Amino acid sequence: MGAYISRGTCKSEYGIYINCTVGKFTNGSIYSLGDIDKGKFQGDGDIAGIGIFSTFIGITSFALLLSLVVVMCSMVKHRIFPFQRCGDGFVINTETTAAAKNKIKPGVSEICQGMVLSCSDAQIFTGAAYALTLRYFRGCTITAYHYNVVANLMLLSCATHLMAITVVRNYWEYAWLALLRVICKTGVFLFTGILLSNQNADMTFAFPTKIPLPDDTTTPLFLYAACFQSNDTQVWSTIDESLKKKNFGNAVFNSTPGNRIEGWNKFLIILLWYIVAVFMEIAMFIRKGNRRDGYRRRLTKAFWRVMIQVGRFTIECLIPKRASTAQCTEAPVTSVVIDTQAPERATPRAVKEETSEQRTIRHLKWIGQYLLTLYYLIGIGICMWTVAASGNYIGKLKQWVQDSGWLDSDDKGANSENDATSFGQLVPLFTSGLVVFTFLEMISTSMSRRKDAKERLLERSDEEQHLPPPPQDPYKYEYTSETKPVLPTPSPEVSQQPVEGTTASQVHHSGPDAIHSYFPSSSEPIIAATTESTEPVSPLLELYSEPVPSQVDTDGSTIDQTVGQATSKSAVSYEKMPFHK
After folding, report:
1. Which residues on neighbouring strands pair with residue 546, listed in sequence order?
2. For the chain, how long is the longest CA-to-CA vector?
3. In what order do the strands lie in the sheet with 336-339?
4. How many other CB atoms are found less than 10 A from the CB of residue 64?
5. Res 517 pLDDT > 50
6. Which of 17, 280, 443, 526 is the most exposed place for a label (fewest CB within 10 A)?
7. What is the pLDDT of residues 47-105, one digit of tens each?
8. What is the spatial distance between Cα 570 and Cα 561, in angstroms, rounded to a whole number?
9. Alpha helices, DSSP H, located in 78-206
């Protein structure tokens, strides 16, 4: 609301004069309150309408149900229930099967957490609307009856915010968005505290917060709320007085820090637990940063070092080692392997003996899971108590007003507060329907992703059954008979001079008796080159070779042998080679 409203504030800042006179009969019965006569009171469907009340109760109850589902899933997953224990009751290892690896999120728990967060976000805007309305437009003209309704509706909103920040594990997945949510919700808590603390003013008439008896005709419930408020009331001073030792019990159990304020004890407990939840979320944010290098990993390691040193001797004394129970196996085990896809099934597995440090870490994690579950249950219990108490209070207060005879109704008894067809009530009703659509959309998306994942898994299994041959190395060149080059290979035996009586065919014969061959054998006959040959000799051959005396073969043919300058002058035979003229 930003500032405290009173008669003086309304007159000085807004120019609104508030009539706080009370008309009574001689028997004490009230027939008029300010400018309002009995039977002429105009209800306000935008604040106390049946549609508004149903929207708040519906969204908060839906978020509460989803929160219970989230906590139950967490308890089953971490084997918190006594019938899930094996061995010494503590889990060492968790095993992820192929089905768990191919699991497509979000699952049931993730969907419920997202919906709780959606319900909380929707009520942030409703709280902002009430804050602006009571601060700038209706602060001076709202009645005490409607003021009580708004204050308890805001308590329902605070309960939804507390559930969101308590059970949603990925609240800080996006740090800037989470920080914006925390700032907005802190503003809602502050506004709710201002609304409630304004009812603690030390005035001649105390703020009427109790539900009157059915035949009560002396309650000033329909008088303007500003008539009971003062500028001297401060929310922090009211909280401080409530937390003092002499007033704490009265404030918590009787909701009476000074005057009777309906819902003050709920707000006080919600506020304290909200502070605990904020610090818990910060701790979880630091813990999740252990996956990467940085200050969060260093803080996590330092925390575990301290906890191991402190808890080692305590755990050894309080939790001695013992054999496993009969429901798991008769032999003692030190490990229980949990399938994350089916956490209700446990498979005992014998492992090596644990070290003292490993056992300390295991038990500390188990204790941490129990404390975390207790933290969830306490938060949900506070929210459940708030929803039940505030919903019951608003319902009974509305019913008393309907039966009091003050409301202006038609011949059929209808008025603006029991008719949900007004524009101001239809808008929140349809807006709350968006939460249901979001819920259905998340379920549809999850089912579609699961279906696509199964199809991809089947396709992958079919491909693995018919694997194609692996591709060849692009840098490996396979030679063939046509492309592989033929390099000259010297014969194992090389003689400097030709053997007498050797024919040309024997010279070119490939085998151990070959004289020398730089080229593979050929079936073509050797062309004998003599000095009398008419075939011109290549100029290149004439330039780089010198003649050698001819040798006469056994058949009478002569063989002209040449030796290049780069080789020795041993006898070498040449095959027919084309030379360019």
Report:
1. 563
2. 166
3. 93-95, 336-339, 346-348
4. 20
5. no
6. 17
7. 888 989 988 999 999 999 999 999 888 888 766 665 555 444 444 444 555 555 555 55
8. 9
9. 98-101, 108-132, 144-167, 175-197
Dist CA 505 CA 534 (whole Å): 23
550 vs 230, higher pLDDT: 230
**The token pair that represents 419 in the structure block:** 């008719």
SS3 letters for 386-452?
Answer: HHHHHHHHHHHHHHHHHHHCCECCCCCCCCCCCCCCCHHHHHHHHHHHHHHHHHHHHHHHHHHHHHH
CB of 393 within 8 A of CB of 152? yes
Bond before 106 cis per omega within 30 degrees: yes
Contact residues for 25 (Cβ-Cβ < 8 A; gap 6+): 31
Q: Using CA atoms, how far apart are residues 79 and 345, in angstroms rounded to an integer?
A: 10
Q: Helix, strand or coil for residue 40?
A: coil
| Residue 372 CA from chain centroid, whole number | 18
Residue 36's beta-bridge partner residues? 33
Identity at 159, one-letter amino acid code? A
d(CA 332, CA 322): 8
DSSP for residue 199: G
CB-CB neighbours of 325 under 10 Å: 13
CA 152 – CA 265 distance, rounded (Å): 12
β-sheet bridge partners, residue 37: 32
Q: Are 92 and 141 in contact (CB under 8 A)?
A: no
